[in-house]
Design a protein that fits this description.
Elements (H helix, E strand, L loop, with lengths): L3 E3 L4 E6 L13 H11 L3 E6 H6 L1 H11 L6 E3 L4 E4 L3 H11 L9 E7 L2 E9 L13 E9 L4 E3 L1 H12 L4 E7 L6 H5 L3 E5 L4 E5 L2 E4 L5 H6 L8 H7 L3 E4 L3 E7 L3
Parallel strand pairs: 2-3, 4-9, 8-10
Antiparallel strand pairs: 1-2, 5-6, 6-7, 7-8, 10-15, 11-15, 12-13, 12-14
Length: 258
């Protein structure tokens, strides 16, 4: 698929077909190299995957409108009530309907309510072992932040984040921004410092949907009857599945000033 861009906004949008942007047709570093090429030209590339457009079209459209500055439905955080949210059903529904990565379990959920409606949400949890991190008291990960579709909650992220750092003891908070569609400036504005870029993440395409690679670890595949002499890639390719590689993440960190 072609990259479409605006000379005025310095933005490019790309639709990544799963097959044509998989390792069958593209190299592992293709998307990173593409982004770096356009960055040198002063253009930020926003990439969306085929299954995101098919299954989460409204979320993708809302992100595009925000990037273009076309979302005029504004709510001011100062007019919202901040609350700790313990309704897990509400949290799951809100994240699945409004965050492109969907629901993830968390320890702390802090929301902004406008006229008693949840309009913005930020969640925190312990450091994730699946990302190679060791959980430690006082160390947290900012897991999700999003606002209701087609709404801009002005000052929302700042208000929620200040509530967290003022009410919870912490030594360090980390978070990640996906290079596919985020510059990470939100976290920079919250006081985080850029630490590093991760290597590209890969996903297995199963039944036309990107699936987390941790669901297809070799040890799990072998327990399900796969040949232990084959690699994860060989086993999955034999099943007719293929991988796609994204542009990786930026890792951000905020340490408490002592």
């Amino acid at each position: 698929s072609d990259v479409c861009s605006s000379d005025l906004l310095k933005l490019g949008f790309e639709y990544n077909g799963l097959y044509w942007h998989s390792e069958i047709k593209k190299t592992k570093k293709y998307h990173i190299q593409k982004n770096e090429y356009f960055k040198k030209l002063g253009i930020d590339i926003i990439s969306f995957w085929e299954d995101d457009w098919v299954d989460k079209k409204e979320i993708v459209e809302s992100i595009i409108l925000n990037k273009l500055g076309k979302n005029k439905n504004r709510i001011y955080a100062r007019k919202c009530e901040i609350r700790e949210v313990n309704n897990n059903k509400l949290i799951r529904k809100f994240l699945n309907e409004n965050h492109i990565q969907g629901f993830i379990g968390s320890k702390y959920k802090i929301g902004l309510f406008h006229n008693d409606e949840l309009v913005s949400l930020m969640t925190f949890g312990s450091l994730r072992k699946s990302l190679g991190q060791k959980s430690k008291d006082g160390n947290y990960e900012l897991l999700r932040f999003c606002s209701k579709l087609n709404k801009v909650v002005v000052g929302g992220a700042s208000k929620i984040f200040k509530h967290f750092i003022n009410n919870y003891q912490f030594e360090k908070i980390i978070t990640y921004s996906k290079n596919d569609y985020s510059s990470g400036n939100l976290y920079k504005n919250l006081g985080f410092e850029f630490e590093s870029n991760t290597v590209p993440n890969y996903y297995w395409v199963v039944d036309g949907v990107k699936s987390n690679r941790f669901n297809f670890r070799k040890d799990k595949l072998v327990r399900e009857g796969a040949d232990p002499n084959k690699t994860e890639v060989e086993i999955m390719n034999d099943k007719g599945h293929y991988r796609v590689f994204d542009t990786g993440n930026k890792k951000w960190i905020l340490r408490k000033n002592i």
